[in-house]
Amino acid sequence: MKYVFLNGKFVPKEEAKISIEDRGFLFGDGIYEVIRAYNGRLFRLDDHIERLFKSAEAIRLPEVYKAEEIKEYVNKLLELSDEKDVEIYIEWTRGVAPREHAFPSKSEPTFVMMLLKPHSQPPETYRKGVKIVSYPEIRWKYPYIKTVNLLPNVLAKQFAKENGAFEAIFVHEDTKIVTEGSSSNVLMVKDGKVYCHETNESILFGITLKVVMEICDKLGIDFVGEKFTYDEMIKADEVFLSGTGAEVMPVVMVDDKVIADGKPGEVTKKILAEFLRMTWREDRLKEYLGES
Known about the structure:
Blueprint: E1 3-6, E2 9-12, H1 23-27, E3 30-38, E4 41-43, H2 45-58, H3 67-80, E5 86-93, E6 110-116, H4 123-128, E7 130-136, H5 151-162, E8 167-171, E9 178-181, E10 185-190, E11 193-196, H6 207-219, E12 223-225, H7 230-234, E13 238-243, E14 247-254, E15 257-258, H8 266-278, H9 285-289
């Protein structure tokens, strides 16, 4: 992971520099994406780049590269890496300009890509399931935009860490509606059906969530996109998370409440198994599921 892509050039990571007047630094005026590569094979690259451009359009970022160019640069960066099981982080800001809140009349966008170690957990975590905690929904109204303004998510994730949990999920204090996690989508299973908050502007439509929907369709599992409450979730048959880092993660405890029998559920395990096949890890099913 020695190289990064910065404004059209591949440069050694230690030589990459961004101006202190970059609006991404000063205002959080930018967007990002994280793409997973499994042993050198990019997963859902097209979906991630499509969402990147939707976020750019939402905050009116000037175009800097075409989608196909970005895909080429992603592949080239991966080729330059000595590690192939990685995450590709992309950040695109409005660029360098004197500090004024309104958009500058002229600026060159900043576009950077770098490789990160993947956030996936060891197989044992998927076999046992994880604990999550609830956190007040304190974010702005547009979480569907994958912006670098992540302070509420950072605070929520820190709360989870301090409480021995894998993830924090946002819950509206008045309605008790569950939206999503700090870096994942939240799903529950009830009577054999998979439920997730409707994919509107209230949540980020995760790429892995999209994959889960496709898996449900393939396996004949009913998928329902509608809101559910915290109380409905803790009484569910199963709960799980989806995300580039979480992948398909079984949840066995929410706050101090055990979900069902406290073990990963059968529907979740079926979805996880299919996800492992889709990400070229069929030979590791037993590691993740504990089954032959």
